[in-house]
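Example for tutorial group B:
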C-alpha cells in the first residue's frame, strides 16, 4: 500500500481549475448532469454540468470522455465551464466487449475516495484505453490493467508461487485472496492461464499488443473473454478489497487532520 498524503483537501479552492482527466460516472438531473471526474493532480471530483439548448457540454461529458476540463469552483460547488475533448467511447463504438470492460473498470475507479490524487492510476487508465483502441482482446487487456493497478499499490500477489506452501506453481491452482494456492483439492485456473496473466501484466505496451496478436489469433472474441473471466473476477475482488482499505485509511487521516 502506498503512503497517503498527510493532508486531504476536502474542498477545492475558489476560482478556476484546469485539469486533464476522464469522466468516470454521470447522474442525470432535470436541467443538469452530475459528473464524477478523475483529474490529474486532484483525484475524483464531482462536478455539475449545465444542460440545455445552448449547452455544448453534454456530449463531452459522457462516461469515458478524455480531455482537458475547465471548472469554476465556488465554495463547495464545482461547475464545468469548458471542455477540450481528446478522445471518447466513440473510438470503441464497434467493440462492444471492450466498451463493457472499460465501463466495468471505471465503475471500480468510481469507488475510490474523492480528492485523493490518483495520477498513476489515471496513466494506467489511459494505457488501458489505448490498448483497447489498438484492438487488444478485452479479457487480457482488462486483466493487464487490474494487475498493473494492484502492482502500483504494492498488493499484487506473487503469481509464480503458492501463497500457502511457497512452492513454485507447477500446475492448476485455486485463486485466493492472498494469491495462487496449489496445495488444495479445488483448482480453477490452469498453469497456462496463470502464465498468460503474468505476460499480460508485465509486458511493455508494444510487446503486449504483439503478444496478443500471436497468442490469440483471430477467433471467437466472446469465448476468449469467457476464458479470462475467472481471473478478472478474482482481480476485481482484490481491487475492491484494496479500495476499502484505502477508504478506511483516508477517513482516519481526515479525522486526524480535523483533530490537529
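The residue assignment follows.
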Amino acid at each position: 500500500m502506498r503512503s497517503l498524503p498527510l493532508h486531504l483537501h476536502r474542498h477545492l479552492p475558489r476560482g478556476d481549475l484546469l485539469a486533464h482527466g476522464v469522466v468516470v460516472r454521470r447522474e442525470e438531473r432535470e436541467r443538469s448532469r452530475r459528473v464524477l471526474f478523475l483529474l490529474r493532480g486532484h483525484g475524483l471530483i464531482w462536478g455539475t454540468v449545465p444542460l440545455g439548448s445552448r449547452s455544448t457540454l453534454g456530449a463531452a461529458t459522457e462516461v469515458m470522455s478524455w480531455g482537458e476540463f475547465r471548472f469554476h469552483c465556488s465554495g463547495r460547488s464545482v461547475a464545468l465551464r469548458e471542455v477540450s475533448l481528446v478522445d471518447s467511447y466513440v473510438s470503441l463504438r464497434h467493440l462492444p466487449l471492450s466498451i463493457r470492460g472499460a465501463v466495468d473498470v471505471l465503475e471500480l475507479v468510481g469507488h475510490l475516495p474523492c480528492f485523493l490524487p490518483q495520477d498513476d492510476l489515471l496513466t494506467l487508465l489511459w494505457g488501458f484505453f489505448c490498448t483497447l483502441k489498438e484492438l487488444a482482446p478485452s479479457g487480457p487487456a482488462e486483466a493487464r490493467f487490474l494487475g498493473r493497478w494492484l502492482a502500483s499499490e504494492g498488493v499484487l500477489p506473487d503469481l509464480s508461487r503458492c501463497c500457502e506452501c511457497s512452492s513454485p506453481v507447477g500446475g492448476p491452482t485455486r485463486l485466493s485472496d492472498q494469491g495462487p494456492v496449489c496445495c488444495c483439492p479445488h483448482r480453477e485456473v490452469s498453469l497456462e492461464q496463470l502464465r498468460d496473466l503474468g505476460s499480460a501484466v508485465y509486458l511493455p505496451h508494444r510487446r503486449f499488443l504483439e503478444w496478443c496478436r500471436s497468442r490469440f489469433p483471430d477467433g471467437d472474441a466472446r469465448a476468449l473473454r469467457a476464458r479470462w473471466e475467472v481471473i478478472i473476477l478474482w482481480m476485481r475482488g482484490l481491487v475492491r478489497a484494496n479500495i476499502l482499505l484505502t477508504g478506511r485509511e483516508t477517513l482516519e487521516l481526515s479525522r486526524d487532520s480535523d483533530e490537529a
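Confidence is low (pLDDT under 50) at residues 1-9. Compare this with the pattern of hydrophobic and polar residues in the output above.
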